[in-house]
Amino acid sequence: MSASGGGPAVASLASGRGKDDAPPRLKVEQASYAYAATGRMAPSFTLGPVSFEAQQCETVAILGPNASGKSTLLRLLSGTNRPLSGRIELDGAEISALDAKARAQRVALVQQESELLFPLRVWEYVLQGRHPYGRRLRFETEEDCLLAGNALEQVGADSLRQRWMDQLSGGEKQRVILARALAQQPALLLLDEPTQHLDIGGKVELLRRLRSLARENRYAVLIVTHELDLAAEFSDRVVLLHKGKCLCVGTPAEVYERELLEQVFEAPLEVEMRPSGRPRVMLREER
Amino acid sequence: MRPLTPSRVVWVCAALAGALFVMVVIALRLGAYPISARDIVMTLFDGVMGRRDRIPSDFWLVVFGLRLPRIALGILVGAALSTAGAGFQALLRNPLADPYVLGIASGAALGSMLSLMLAPQVPGATQVAAFIGAAATTAVVYFLGRRGGQLDSATLLLAGIITASFLSAAIMFLETMLSGRDQRGMAFWLLGDLTAPPSVGLRWLYLVLIVVVGCIYTTAADLNLILTGEQEARHLGVHVNRVKLVVYLGASLLTGLAVSVGGAIGYVGLLVPHVMRMLFGTDYRLLIPASALGGAIAILLADTLARTVVAPTELPVGAMTALAGAPVFIYLMRRRVR
User: Which pTM was predicted?
Assistant: First the structure.
């Protein structure tokens, strides 16, 4: 299952280099947003301007503490809200200008699952990911079933297909939600705090899987998170947000500076560079 | 792994239509004047084929003159209420939503009553007023049921109950202004009553029913996703606001239609979609037509019982549905709490 819009594979991605070989899949240019920006009221929260790029096959972490603007940026990237200024382009097309269906064929969002009103089986849930490809009322085709089955296989949840959604464990559910997003065959895969309810084993497994999916399917994967260590280990690029401002964009090694992180996360931290070139963050002992 | 196919929808609907036909024959058979089931089927067949001369005149009177209009009205009301119930359950994302529980039927009843008192001679005025009453009540309950910008299940039900009791008080106030005979008729109608022929031709009401159910049906695939979550549906390419508007207007119209001709018949809109879900699954592409047919069967069953259990006296059909519906409602509510 490969996403649309091929192009040459980008080599040596772990370092985030080699981006000159292909046009960026996602291009965020000076995007900003403000809530409650009516004529009379001062905006309650302002984001931006934010600029960064993501290549296909690349994993980008949107990193920041609570109330730093991560969710707002995600709303802009998913096309839920239109940026007040600036542009967000996916393969050259502005995301917020796309029709809802066309957007759902290119951008998939994995969120914390909302409560299901009526029970659904796993395969029915994953088939929902094929909805953007149908006309009104259309019934699923054999091809849709095949693609949904492939998506379940890709996340290693093949054995769950007959189970009920409300009987899955947190980790299983997360994989099924991811499978539904894969069934959308997107170019851009967005994940909102995907590791929140997982234990450390589940977190590592999910992030490894995301990195390999990004490469196999040529997605640009964007993960919103506040977990410093995981972002350092699994992302090719980090966008650091603080109080609605984009402080820094670069590889984990470039972004992870002790003073900067301490200021953003308001905690005494220590940053250590490992032989792999990826930083590690620890709490500093206070004397 | 087999998703819903059009042929399954057709088969299930054909089976339900068959069950409905059997129910129609049973309803036609029962009554003071005895006719055998075979005669009823023959009379219906000849009637449909336009061979009126081959039907005995007493059969014609009993079947086409007396019993069939009431049955046709029952089918209309049942189909409208059940489809409206299925629609409201998706629209308000609440499995306990139904036109009656949320006070929407009371709004329609108040609208009908006002139009009956103010403009009794205008054809179609009752239906229009009932629709306006239903639509306005839905809007009020929807906004009262929100908490922190989100539609909250418990708040929504409370808002519905409060709205319903307020509207009942208003209806009672209007009732006291009527004369004695009108008052009794109105009280009977409010409990749900299929005896009074509608002021508008049945074929027009059926036309509205079919068009509106058809409109709601076009959103069926989108409703499946909205049930999973509005935000998620948006990200899967559903025009959520457009779908909600269609279902909101459609379900309000159907409620208005049903209440204006049959009074406030409770629980059908709640229970029939649930029973259909248990039988055929939660997919709205099947659930909507199945609910429409199932609702028709349920009303016919209730009305036939209402006519026969204490014959020659008749119970209001609404009393019958409430008698059966209330315990099932409690069961569903407790199952959900657990």
Answer: 0.84
